[in-house]
Amino acid sequence: MHFKYQRWDERFAKSKGQSPFDTLWDTFQELLTISSGDVQQALRWLTELDNDYDLTDRFDDYNIGDFVDELKERGYIEQDNKQQIYVMTRKTERSLRQRSLEEIFNNLKKGAAGNHQTDHTGKGLERQPETRKWQQGDDIANIDSVGTMMNMLRHSNIDQMKLHEDDIRVHDTDHYTSVATVLLIDLSHSMVLYGEDRITPAKKVAMALSELILNNYAKDSLDIVAFGNEAWKVDIEDLPYLKVGPYHTNTQQALELARHTLHRRKFANKQIFMITDGKPSCIIENGKMYKNSFGLDRKIVNRVLDEAVKCRRDDIDITTFMIARDPYLQDFVRELTKANKGRAYFASLDNLGGYIFEDYIRNRKRRVK
After folding, report:
1. Whole-angstrom distance between the N-terminal and C-terminal Cα of the chain?
2. Which of 12, 30, 63, 160 is the most exposed place for a label (fewest CB within 10 A)?
3. Is residue 39 located within the same domain as residue 183?
C-alpha cells in the first residue's frame, strides 16, 4: 500500500498540548482501520511514516517502541501466544467505533447530507411550528398559547372572556419510534479496484452507526450483513476486521438474508441500508453459483428486483448508497429503487457517512396521525 499525505504538519500542529501517545494514537487507529485490524501491519506503516516524516522527532525521548509499550500497558494490544504477534483487544475495537462516530458527526456539523420528507404529523417529542386543534390526550405543554388566545378573543368581549374547547391549538410534534436496521456491506473485489479504497469508509460507517445505536438508541436494532459470492451476518465486534475478497456480488442473497433477519425483529419500522459500488454479478441457483461479470445480466438483475419487491410487500424500505458513478450502474440502482419504492443516493466516499447518518436519524422520526 502506498501513502500520500499532505497535511501532517497541520495535524501535528493541532495536537500541541497532547501527549506523544495521544498524538500517535489517532494516526495508529486510522492505520488499524485500513489494515482491517492487523496490528503488525499498522505498526509497520506507522514506522515507515515515522522514518519518512520524523513524527517522533517532535517528542523528547519517545519513539515507536515506547508507543508500543504504552499500547500494551493501556490494554489496547496484547500478545497472541499461538502466533506470537500483537492483536487488538476489545478496548481497541470499541475505541475504533467511537472514533468513527466522532469523525462522522464532525462532518455532519459542517453540512447535512441526505434529505427526505415524511408525510404525516402527530404526537411525539420534537415540537413543529405547525398547529392543529387540541384532542383528548394531547400534552398541555404543547399548547400554542398565542393561537389559542387569538381564537378566544374572536368570540369574547372586554367584560367576559370565554375559552371554548375548539379554541385550543397545539403544536404538532415528531414521534420518535424504534427502528430495525440491517446494514449491507459489499465486500466484492471492486471495493478496492482502480486504486481507490472504498471498503475503509464503509467499515467506518458501520462501526459508527453501531456505536450510535448502542449508546443512544438502545431500543433500536442493527444487524450487519456482508456480501460477496454469498451473504453472511457479521457481529459488531468483527467490523474492524472486514476484508475485501476475490468475490463477485450476490446482491440478491444479501437482500434475502436482510429480509429474513428483519422478519424476526418485532418492530413496526424496518429498513435496509445497502452500501455498494457495483452491479450484481452472481446468484445461487440449484446450489451452484451462476455468475456473469460482464454488463448487467438480466437473469441476475431480475432476481434482485424480485427480492426488492418482496421487501416492499413486507414494508421494508431499501436505501441504496451507491459509491460509483457509472451511468449503467446508476440505471440499475434506479430500477431497484423503483421496484422497492425506496431511496437511492449516489454518494462519494467523503460524504457517505453523512448521508447514512442523516437518513437513519430522520427515519427514526415517524409522524403518525
Report:
1. 54
2. 160
3. no
